[in-house]
Amino acid sequence: MKRSQINAAIENAHRALREHGIRLPEYGYWSPDDWRRNAGPGHHRIYENMLGWACTDFGQGDFDRCGITMFDVRNGTPEPNLGTPYGEKIFVLKPGQRLPFHFHYNKTEDIISYAGGTLMIELYNANPDETMDETTPGVVYCDGVRKPFEPGQIFEIPHGQSLTIVPRLYHRFWAKDDGAVLVGGEISTISVPRTDNKFTAGGRRFVPIEEDVEPTYLLNVDYDKLHEVA
Q: Which of 76, 87, 107, 208 is most buried, judged by most C-beta within 10 A?
Protein backbone atom coordinates (compact mmCIF):
# COMPACT_ATOMS: atom_id res chain seq x y z
CA MET A 1 0.00 0.00 0.00
CA LYS A 2 1.00 3.59 -0.48
CA ARG A 3 1.34 5.81 2.57
CA SER A 4 -0.94 8.33 0.85
CA GLN A 5 -3.70 5.67 0.76
CA ILE A 6 -3.20 4.97 4.46
CA ASN A 7 -3.35 8.68 5.34
CA ALA A 8 -6.60 9.06 3.39
CA ALA A 9 -8.10 5.93 4.96
CA ILE A 10 -7.41 7.15 8.50
CA GLU A 11 -8.87 10.58 7.71
CA ASN A 12 -11.97 8.82 6.37
CA ALA A 13 -12.16 6.78 9.58
CA HIS A 14 -11.88 9.92 11.71
CA ARG A 15 -14.76 11.50 9.78
CA ALA A 16 -16.96 8.43 10.25
CA LEU A 17 -16.17 8.18 13.96
CA ARG A 18 -16.87 11.89 14.50
CA GLU A 19 -20.17 11.59 12.65
CA HIS A 20 -21.32 8.88 15.05
CA GLY A 21 -19.88 10.39 18.24
CA ILE A 22 -17.22 7.71 18.79
CA ARG A 23 -14.00 8.87 20.47
CA LEU A 24 -10.61 7.16 20.55
CA PRO A 25 -7.83 7.30 23.14
CA GLU A 26 -5.79 10.50 22.84
CA TYR A 27 -2.95 8.88 20.87
CA GLY A 28 -5.46 7.99 18.14
CA TYR A 29 -5.26 11.66 17.13
CA TRP A 30 -1.49 12.11 17.44
CA SER A 31 0.72 13.03 14.53
CA PRO A 32 4.23 11.54 14.29
CA ASP A 33 5.56 14.73 15.90
CA ASP A 34 3.04 14.35 18.74
CA TRP A 35 4.35 10.82 19.33
CA ARG A 36 7.93 12.09 19.50
CA ARG A 37 6.95 14.83 21.96
CA ASN A 38 4.55 12.87 24.16
CA ALA A 39 5.45 9.17 24.13
CA GLY A 40 7.66 7.79 26.85
CA PRO A 41 8.11 4.77 29.12
CA GLY A 42 4.50 5.03 30.24
CA HIS A 43 3.37 4.19 26.71
CA HIS A 44 5.34 0.94 26.55
CA ARG A 45 2.22 -1.25 26.74
CA ILE A 46 0.77 0.45 23.66
CA TYR A 47 3.89 -0.52 21.74
CA GLU A 48 4.08 -4.08 23.06
CA ASN A 49 0.42 -4.85 22.35
CA MET A 50 0.31 -3.05 18.98
CA LEU A 51 -2.52 -0.76 20.01
CA GLY A 52 -3.51 2.02 17.66
CA TRP A 53 -4.12 2.34 13.92
CA ALA A 54 -3.86 -0.47 11.38
CA CYS A 55 -4.67 -0.35 7.69
CA THR A 56 -4.23 -3.08 5.08
CA ASP A 57 -5.28 -4.18 1.61
CA PHE A 58 -4.38 -7.79 2.50
CA GLY A 59 -1.88 -7.85 -0.35
CA GLN A 60 -4.61 -7.60 -3.00
CA GLY A 61 -3.59 -4.18 -4.37
CA ASP A 62 -7.15 -2.80 -4.48
CA PHE A 63 -7.89 -1.16 -1.13
CA ASP A 64 -11.32 0.18 -2.08
CA ARG A 65 -12.46 -3.36 -2.89
CA CYS A 66 -10.47 -5.39 -0.35
CA GLY A 67 -9.18 -3.68 2.79
CA ILE A 68 -9.95 -2.38 6.26
CA THR A 69 -9.01 0.50 8.55
CA MET A 70 -9.08 -0.28 12.26
CA PHE A 71 -7.94 0.91 15.65
CA ASP A 72 -6.83 -1.59 18.30
CA VAL A 73 -8.16 -0.14 21.54
CA ARG A 74 -7.23 -3.02 23.84
CA ASN A 75 -5.14 -6.18 23.58
CA GLY A 76 -2.69 -8.35 25.47
CA THR A 77 0.19 -10.70 24.79
CA PRO A 78 0.04 -14.38 25.76
CA GLU A 79 3.71 -14.53 26.82
CA PRO A 80 4.72 -12.50 28.72
CA ASN A 81 1.34 -11.57 30.14
CA LEU A 82 1.14 -7.86 29.28
CA GLY A 83 -2.02 -5.88 28.76
CA THR A 84 -5.57 -7.15 28.92
CA PRO A 85 -6.69 -10.80 28.57
CA TYR A 86 -8.99 -9.71 25.73
CA GLY A 87 -8.94 -7.51 22.66
CA GLU A 88 -11.09 -4.74 21.23
CA LYS A 89 -10.99 -3.15 17.79
CA ILE A 90 -13.00 -0.42 16.12
CA PHE A 91 -13.07 -0.74 12.34
CA VAL A 92 -14.27 1.34 9.41
CA LEU A 93 -15.29 -0.05 6.00
CA LYS A 94 -16.31 1.85 2.88
CA PRO A 95 -19.41 0.63 1.03
CA GLY A 96 -18.46 -2.58 -0.80
CA GLN A 97 -15.07 -2.84 0.95
CA ARG A 98 -14.48 -6.31 2.33
CA LEU A 99 -11.95 -8.64 3.90
CA PRO A 100 -10.78 -11.86 2.20
CA PHE A 101 -11.96 -15.18 3.58
CA HIS A 102 -9.94 -16.22 6.62
CA PHE A 103 -10.15 -18.04 9.91
CA HIS A 104 -8.32 -17.82 13.23
CA TYR A 105 -6.53 -20.77 14.79
CA ASN A 106 -7.20 -19.68 18.37
CA LYS A 107 -9.14 -16.43 18.58
CA THR A 108 -12.85 -16.20 19.31
CA GLU A 109 -14.40 -12.87 18.37
CA ASP A 110 -17.69 -11.02 18.27
CA ILE A 111 -18.03 -8.90 15.12
CA ILE A 112 -20.32 -5.99 15.97
CA SER A 113 -22.26 -3.49 13.87
CA TYR A 114 -22.23 -0.03 15.47
CA ALA A 115 -23.34 2.66 13.03
CA GLY A 116 -23.47 3.90 9.45
CA GLY A 117 -23.57 1.22 6.77
CA THR A 118 -24.81 -2.37 6.96
CA LEU A 119 -22.52 -5.17 8.15
CA MET A 120 -22.61 -8.37 6.07
CA ILE A 121 -20.86 -11.60 7.15
CA GLU A 122 -20.41 -14.76 5.04
CA LEU A 123 -19.50 -18.11 6.64
CA TYR A 124 -18.02 -21.52 5.80
CA ASN A 125 -16.68 -24.25 8.03
CA ALA A 126 -13.07 -25.36 7.56
CA ASN A 127 -11.97 -28.86 6.61
CA PRO A 128 -9.30 -30.62 8.71
CA ASP A 129 -6.74 -29.76 6.00
CA GLU A 130 -7.66 -26.04 6.42
CA THR A 131 -9.44 -25.77 3.07
CA MET A 132 -12.91 -24.30 2.91
CA ASP A 133 -15.74 -26.79 3.50
CA GLU A 134 -18.35 -26.00 0.86
CA THR A 135 -20.80 -28.77 1.81
CA THR A 136 -21.20 -28.96 5.62
CA PRO A 137 -23.69 -26.73 7.46
CA GLY A 138 -22.85 -25.27 10.86
CA VAL A 139 -24.10 -23.24 13.79
CA VAL A 140 -23.19 -19.76 15.02
CA TYR A 141 -24.52 -17.47 17.72
CA CYS A 142 -25.78 -13.93 17.21
CA ASP A 143 -25.89 -12.15 20.57
CA GLY A 144 -26.40 -15.51 22.27
CA VAL A 145 -29.10 -16.73 19.86
CA ARG A 146 -28.32 -20.01 18.06
CA LYS A 147 -28.38 -19.66 14.27
CA PRO A 148 -27.87 -22.64 11.91
CA PHE A 149 -26.15 -21.74 8.64
CA GLU A 150 -25.58 -23.29 5.24
CA PRO A 151 -22.16 -23.08 3.53
CA GLY A 152 -21.74 -19.60 2.11
CA GLN A 153 -24.72 -18.18 3.96
CA ILE A 154 -24.64 -14.41 4.41
CA PHE A 155 -25.84 -12.78 7.61
CA GLU A 156 -26.96 -9.15 7.69
CA ILE A 157 -26.14 -7.69 11.11
CA PRO A 158 -28.28 -4.72 12.26
CA HIS A 159 -26.76 -1.91 14.31
CA GLY A 160 -26.19 -2.93 17.92
CA GLN A 161 -26.03 -6.63 17.08
CA SER A 162 -23.15 -9.05 16.55
CA LEU A 163 -22.10 -12.50 15.35
CA THR A 164 -19.64 -14.73 17.22
CA ILE A 165 -16.79 -16.21 15.17
CA VAL A 166 -15.13 -19.27 16.70
CA PRO A 167 -11.72 -20.70 15.75
CA ARG A 168 -11.46 -22.37 12.33
CA LEU A 169 -14.66 -20.80 11.02
CA TYR A 170 -14.00 -19.21 7.63
CA HIS A 171 -15.54 -15.77 7.39
CA ARG A 172 -15.41 -12.55 5.50
CA PHE A 173 -17.33 -9.37 6.21
CA TRP A 174 -18.03 -6.14 4.44
CA ALA A 175 -20.11 -2.98 4.31
CA LYS A 176 -23.14 -3.41 2.07
CA ASP A 177 -22.40 -2.00 -1.37
CA ASP A 178 -25.23 0.53 -1.63
CA GLY A 179 -24.99 1.90 1.91
CA ALA A 180 -22.90 4.30 3.96
CA VAL A 181 -19.47 4.00 5.56
CA LEU A 182 -19.73 1.32 8.26
CA VAL A 183 -18.38 1.66 11.78
CA GLY A 184 -18.07 -1.69 13.50
CA GLY A 185 -16.14 -3.37 16.24
CA GLU A 186 -14.58 -6.56 17.47
CA ILE A 187 -14.44 -7.93 21.02
CA SER A 188 -12.24 -11.01 21.25
CA THR A 189 -9.80 -13.14 23.09
CA ILE A 190 -6.22 -11.89 22.75
CA SER A 191 -5.43 -11.06 19.12
CA VAL A 192 -2.14 -12.34 17.69
CA PRO A 193 -2.42 -11.29 14.02
CA ARG A 194 1.08 -12.34 12.96
CA THR A 195 0.44 -16.04 13.65
CA ASP A 196 -3.30 -16.62 14.18
CA ASN A 197 -4.71 -15.89 10.71
CA LYS A 198 -5.28 -18.34 7.86
CA PHE A 199 -6.22 -16.56 4.63
CA THR A 200 -7.42 -17.89 1.28
CA ALA A 201 -6.29 -16.70 -2.15
CA GLY A 202 -2.92 -15.38 -1.03
CA GLY A 203 -4.31 -12.86 1.43
CA ARG A 204 -2.06 -11.56 4.19
CA ARG A 205 -2.57 -9.23 7.10
CA PHE A 206 0.72 -7.29 6.92
CA VAL A 207 1.78 -5.65 3.64
CA PRO A 208 4.73 -3.47 2.56
CA ILE A 209 4.22 0.29 2.67
CA GLU A 210 5.42 2.53 -0.17
CA GLU A 211 6.43 5.81 1.47
CA ASP A 212 5.21 8.15 -1.28
CA VAL A 213 4.32 10.86 1.29
CA GLU A 214 5.02 11.50 4.96
CA PRO A 215 2.65 9.77 7.42
CA THR A 216 -0.14 11.88 8.88
CA TYR A 217 -0.71 9.31 11.63
CA LEU A 218 1.41 6.36 12.73
CA LEU A 219 0.26 2.79 12.29
CA ASN A 220 0.96 0.33 15.07
CA VAL A 221 3.60 -1.24 12.82
CA ASP A 222 5.43 2.12 12.77
CA TYR A 223 6.20 2.23 16.49
CA ASP A 224 9.60 0.58 16.15
CA LYS A 225 10.75 3.84 14.52
CA LEU A 226 10.16 5.74 17.77
CA HIS A 227 13.00 5.27 20.26
CA GLU A 228 10.97 7.08 22.91
CA VAL A 229 8.39 4.28 22.96
CA ALA A 230 10.74 1.30 22.77
A: 87
DSSP 41: G
Report whether 6 contacts 57 (CB < 8 A).
Answer: no
Which residues make Cβ contacts (< 8 Å) with residue 20, sequence separation at least 6? 114, 115, 116, 183
**This prediction's pTM:** 0.94
Q: Please, what are the averages of pLDDT over each run of 10 residues along the chain (230 residues)?
A: 98 98 98 94 93 96 96 91 93 96 98 98 98 98 98 98 98 93 98 94 91 97 70
Backbone angles phi, psi at 91, to 5 degrees: -125, 155
- Give the Cα separation of 124 and 103 in Å (integer): 10
